[in-house]
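Reopening closed ticket. The problem is back. First fold of the pair:
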Amino acid sequence: MGKNSSKYGGLKLNYKRTFLIGFAFFGILLLWQVYDSWCPTFLTDIFARRMYGLSSAALKAGDADKILNVQWIVGIIMACDNLAALILLPIFGSLSDKTKTPIGKRMPYILTGTLVAAVAFPFIPLFFHYNNIIGMVIVMAIVLLFMMMYRNPAVALMPDITPKPLRAKANGIINIMGYLGGAFATVLGIFLKLSDYINVEDEARKLWIIEIPFIIASILMVISAFVLFATIKEKKLETELKDEMELGEKYAAIENPVTDDGPMSKANRNMLLAILGAEFLWFMADNAIGTYIGNYVIYYLDSPSSSTMILTIVGGLASVLGFAIAGLIADKIGRKWTISTGLSITVVALIIMCFVTPSSTVVGANGEKAFPVILFAVWAIKGFGMALVHNCSFPMVVELCSNKKIGKFTGFYYAASMSAQTITPILLGLVFNVSKAWRALPIYASILFFISFLVFTLLVKNIVARKVSNTHGVEALGDD
């Protein structure tokens, strides 16, 4: 037994199984990292060329306002995908709760969503290369649709087979697996620089520079899904873990117990709404940065696009550290104050970013400028802070439901995040259009993170006094 297992009637996390479930997160973050790193710049480039009749190289070297003027269009298209996700995530969550098949209730959605999204994904850069806006946007929509079919059931799989007191511990492990997936995409972006493609005349562009990352992401996503399917026997585990899941209900970290059929208590409902409200705000902030950081680096800092990928690696490493010790922090101060600490750390990072300006040192053959080193520190602080937030927030949501409603409550969690990601690209795009200033990005994000901190800290209540056992540093590697 692990040293904390006696606290909860002998419940103990199965680390090997949790790592294997993490392959679902591996595939999710792998695809999103490629999607978020490349697609907003694809859209910026193609619309700027269509609207102004200039090559991308000419736009890059010329009028920056023309690039800012199309960001609201980029935001609308990115938001339309998220709007579809906002509708579909709760639907697929509820459907998978009620699905019964020989391979389980989540696996049919995971396998179907993965295969279709993986086949469609490489067509996004292909249509972009041939200047086909309609084709590119349609394929982006198809990818998002089937990733929503995949995402909710994949995320719900962890709490399906993990007792409540152990879910924060498990969430840290599977998030580390997810960041490993994102790291694959990031490394590709360092060696296959999007700026090398964007900053040349149209006839000199090489399709393979932008196509290879999408193909590799598709292949690895399919492999990760089949590893998950081959190793996690959902139906068998549901039967084997029935007693453990029932025992876990007795140790839920909320004052009012939940039941399978009864309505939520008023206190639990208020707690859920407060968590989801704060989550909405921090995803508004975080997605704004994720959507526009590539354009911020290329068009504002005038730095190589590979700098964005290095930023992602720095943030990812800090996030892994955060996930590894978030449980230790939560053991000491509780999940609520762990999240509040993470949000306050992130606010500090974004305030620093508000004062970053382009360098005057030229480092590239295309006139690209040196990347501001301070941003690596900003990304490390932000990555660590948001790891504390993400490690504890999802377990707090599914703590408020019974085992029969995990998919539905997972849908609530993602409805909050996707609604934020529907609104924020459009809103910030309009802010760019009015302000004509890329510095609006960190200002916008820091304000939203601060409001999220206030909402979460002041309104999330109804938490029991005892602390929930979470992972302790390298204990996340397991003792089996």
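Second fold of the pair, where the issue appears:
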Amino acid sequence: MTETGRSGQGGLRGIDWADLPHGGDLFGEMHLSQTAAQTGPLAPLPALWPGLAMCGVASAAAAWLSDHYGFPIILLGLLVGLALNFISQDLRTHRGLDFAARTCLRIGIVVLGFQVTIAQIVALGVAPFAALVVVMGVTFAAGMAGARLGGQSPYAGILAGGATAICGASAALALYGVIGKDRLSQAQFALTLVGISLASAFAMSVYPILAGDLGLNHGQAGFLIGASIHDVAQAIGGGYAFSDAAGSYATIVKLARVAMLAPIVALVSLTIGQAGAAQDQPLWRRLALPWFIVAFLAAVVLNSVVTVPTVISHAALVASKALLLLAVTATAMRSRMDLLLQMGWRAAVPVVTATLASFATALGFALLLI
């Protein structure tokens, strides 16, 4: 194109279109192909770095606040992430935030398996374990009923009931990996996580006091606290707040609940299908467990047959908490605050009903069996 031609195009004199990126790419095929290459599943570290860096800074701030002020670290990660959700408006952060929300979550769940052994579950005994299964079933059903009462999606009930029944935020993250954001919005997921974290913190503070006021013995208090408090660390802390004996028993009960993560996620996956799976998949594909649940089971088995040194076990626990914190923070940063405000109080009903059912059922069995 000549200089005269350029000046006739709105006075765009001196522009060399051939040197501009994608200047002759009328429909954007070149641009889209290069963008896909940069943001594909094997995206290099530079593509992940902006989102990972922002998520890491937010998670570190949450960890510092938790260490200095004693608030639950998962709850702080959620709140800090929600406060910084404007960062996700920058498209450069999306790959890193998605990586943290998905990959860090799955690795964190796998590493969590090194905290459980088959011997711990066997030590619980047949009757208490059967009672624990009933408590978990009632809690799950209460979450589903709460979703119906609150006019929420049944997937919200699955998420709230399953997370309350198993191990709080860790289970919520695993279940959301099966449910998927197409069936349940990230805003609903973030709100459920906030509710679970608040309910767990409340339970850790109140349940030991209630157990004392009700005159429960060490075993009864340990079962009540271990079977009904959501988060692992808070269940164990609540047990030891009552007594050392209750804390030891609460630890066994709680870890037995954690071991049920894989079976429950498998049942949910079989019932509703994995996120993004085609409806016409063959049966063997629909029965297949998510890879991170299989790896979780493998970690439990390995931890049961091999004596893992205490240093490694502790390091695995710290790594699991850090990875899950990154996943929670990244999810909150990708959530839209306007959608959270639109949901209102009804979105918290499944968590409330599941929490109340968990406490009432666990208290009943604690009085009957122990």
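Update: turned out to be a display glitch only; the data is intact. The two ends are 90 Å apart (CA to CA). Residues 1-42 have pLDDT under 50 and may be disordered. Please close again.
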